[in-house]
Amino acid sequence: MPGGVSSPVRSMKSVGGKPLIIERAEGAMIEDIDGTRYIDYCMSFGPLILGHAHQEVVEALLVQVKNGVSYGTSNPMEIELAEEIVTAHPAMDWVRFVNSGTEAVMSAIRLARGTTGRTKIVKFEGTYHGHADSMLVRAGSGLVTFGLSSSAGIPTGVSNDTIVLQLGNEEALKEAFALYGEDIAAVIIEGVPANNGLLIQTKEFMHLIQELCRKHGALFILDELITGFRLGLGGATAHYGLMPDIVTLGKIIGGGLPVGVYGGRAELMNKIAPLGSVYQAGTLSGNPLAMVAGLKTIRILKENPQTYEILERRATYLLGTIRGIMEEAGFPCSSKQIASIVWPFFQEPSEAKRPDQVSAEAVQTYSQVHQLALKNGVYLPPSAFEVSFLSTAHTESVLQETVNAFEKVVSLL
């Protein structure tokens, strides 16, 4: 396997060291093939809001495995999960299940182009929307980790139809619509940009995107792969009071299994085959295992709405304590948080709303912290630009264990 991994950010290249080979996991802990255990703050990059191997999710999966793992037809769990999603999410009337976030975004863009008859897509520098060709132009996630502005193998014609703007720059957004308004099929942005650091945008900027799309006949695509069911049942859509035309979801709605969803208003979604002329298909889409895991996860969250408040409170405590430890030892430390998503970055306090506001020194310090944390039993995301996630399994005792480990890290740093 290239780099010994199935996804480049797992290679640990940017933080040093070799890929972790994890054999089992439970709660907030992962265990490698040598039996070394780590407190996990990557949580499979976000979907495991209930922790690893949650008992109720596992039991539901075991029942489903005995009933079959793939049918190639529709199944009851698929219908029930669709009902749960559209009930919870303000902007979604109909949904189509796919197998990954990349597929969801790729399909949403095709729908936008098929609906409007236009070709150009507006995205923002450093945001990550999967590895479809048009979305890898000046993207985030692994491309930032490896210092690449885009990927080789993308034809010029594809990149020419992607307009990349600076995050938070209202004037640039207005200018793009003034110049290309009649050609723009859609604007896409992450609910909270979280693949290039946690770059929380203002409510005003998010609403300006929506307003300009409405004015010029473009569609507003909100990528909620990370924020959907992580910020709350209504995701970033409810958090900002938005009403996007198309929403993409993933991660939590699969309960840790591969899944993606795109959806929106019924009049848009009925343009998807077999009802309309925008084609999209997938042999394993709506896979019963992913449907069962996602359905159980969402129902647990709905039955325990206080979960979000508890997670946010624990995240605030952890991030504040880590920042205090760093500052007391004389190291600069900034931090960003929204709900149970946290991002410490090691430079003088800064708002950091754009990727270029993160210093090279902060990236280097993160690499050192990552290596030392791993030696002290804490696994952080393997890139300074990736955010950390808490789960319900990150109890107060787990947080205290993390703080104790971090004190050792800072003393070694």
Question: Which short descriptors sum up this protein?
Answer:
13 helices, seven-stranded mixed beta sheet, 413 residues, 15% strand, 14 strands, alpha/beta
Structure, described:
By secondary structure, the chain is α/β, with parallel strands linked by helices. The chain is 38% helix and 15% strand. The protein has helices at 55-67, 76-88, 101-116, 142-145, 156-160, 170-180, 203-216, 235-240, 266-269, 288-303, 306-328, 360-375, 396-412, and strands at 22-26, 29-32, 37-40, 94-98, 120-124, 162-165, 184-190, 219-223, 246-250, 260-264, 334-338, 341-345, 378-379, 388-389. The strands form 3 sheets. It has a 7-stranded mixed beta sheet, sandwiched between helices. A 4-stranded mixed beta sheet has the order 1-2-3-13. The chain has a 3-stranded antiparallel beta sheet with strand order 11-12-14. A hairpin with a 2-residue loop joins strand 1 and strand 2 (29-32). Helix 1 runs antiparallel to helix 10, helix 6 packs parallel to helix 7 and helix 11 packs parallel to helix 13 (396-412). Mean pLDDT is 92; it is low at 140-149.
Helix content: 25-40%
Radius of gyration: 21 Å
Mean pLDDT: 92
Strand content: 15-25%
Number of helices: 13
For the record, give the distance between the C-alpha atoms at the N and C termini, rounded to a whole number: 33 Å
**SS-derived structural category:** alpha/beta
Rough shape? globular
Low-confidence stretches: 140-149
Tell me the strand order in the biggest sheet.
Answer: 4-10-9-8-7-5-6
Q: Could you tell me the number of beta strands? A: 14
* Largest sheet report: 7 strands, mixed
State the order of secondary-structure elements, H for helix, E for strand.
EEEHHEHEHHEHEHEHEEHHHEEHEEH
